[in-house]
């Protein structure tokens, strides 16, 4: 099996519904010279790292991680692949799903496009680090609408696990309400998730594709020995089903890997 999973996965969600856009206040007549245009904040892409840290003996074999991951998401069988980290040398971020549309705040366009990671996810992970990814397509792909579910697990001690989580930058508060073509149609919200540890990061991204709300849910957490990443992208994307799958998978990993 090829390593297409890394691009599809690392490449990670709707907690706020579309609301009626607020009216802009009338600024009134200008009373003086215009202020200089401010620089629009953007997410600056980070170059790929050139050096990976040296790690000691591994605690898990790849087969241990393989057998610990679930085999299905509901009725969808999960295909599995090895070594999702680091991504392939030719890995590229996805194209802007909001290309050609006005976005305000403009920064939120980048937060959505890069899934919060302005670099290459897991690029610092040594190539031989045990890791497994499970993936299932949930429907046909139409343009940027690519419904899928995925789970990644990679063995990383706590300091490197934190480094992987911290590649995903904090979600800007202003992205909770995003205007697309003048209407509030998008949002990016991050909140803690009890039961997955103090470093758990649960992020929900919602934006329009082909006139309908598209939702991307990303949940990432670490233990003392490994990091897990869940991702579910779909039009129909209920939170309860996603969190139930994540919780069941977490419990299975804890039991199988004792970590």
UniProtKB/TrEMBL annotation:
Keywords: Signal
Signal peptide, first to last residue: 1-19
Residue ranges with Low complexity bias: 27-41
Region listing for Disordered, in residue ranges: 21-41
Name of the protein in question: DUF3558 domain-containing protein
PROSITE patterns tied to this protein: PROKAR_LIPOPROTEIN
Keyword Signal: yes
Organism from which the protein derives: Kribbella pratensis
């Amino acid at each position: 099996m090829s390593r297409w999973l890394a691009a599809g996965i690392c490449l990670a969600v709707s907690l706020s519904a579309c609301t009626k856009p607020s009216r802009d206040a009338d600024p009134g007549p200008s009373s003086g010279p215009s202020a200089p245009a401010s620089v629009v904040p953007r997410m600056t892409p980070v170059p790929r790292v050139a050096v990976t840290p040296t790690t000691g003996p591994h605690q898990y074999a790849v087969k241990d991680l393989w057998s610990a991951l679930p085999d299905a998401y509901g009725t969808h069988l999960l295909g599995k692949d090895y070594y999702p980290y680091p991504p392939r040398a030719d890995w590229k971020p996805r194209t802007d799903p909001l290309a050609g549309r006005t976005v305000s705040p403009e920064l939120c366009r980048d937060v959505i496009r890069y899934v919060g990671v302005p670099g290459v996810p897991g690029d610092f992970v040594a190539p031989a680090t045990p890791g497994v990814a499970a993936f299932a397509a949930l429907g046909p792909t139409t343009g940027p609408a690519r419904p899928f579910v995925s789970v990644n697990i990679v063995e990383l001690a706590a300091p490197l696990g934190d480094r992987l989580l911290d590649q995903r930058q904090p979600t800007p508060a202003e992205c909770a309400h995003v205007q697309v073509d003048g209407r509030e149609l998008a949002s990016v919200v991050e909140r803690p998730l009890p039961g997955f540890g103090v470093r758990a990061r649960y992020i929900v991204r919602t934006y329009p594709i082909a006139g309908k709300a598209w939702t991307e849910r990303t949940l990432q957490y670490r233990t003392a020995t490994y990091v897990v990443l869940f991702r579910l992208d779909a039009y129909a994307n209920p939170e309860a089903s996603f969190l139930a799958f994540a919780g069941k998978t977490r419990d299975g990993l804890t039991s199988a890997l004792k970590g």
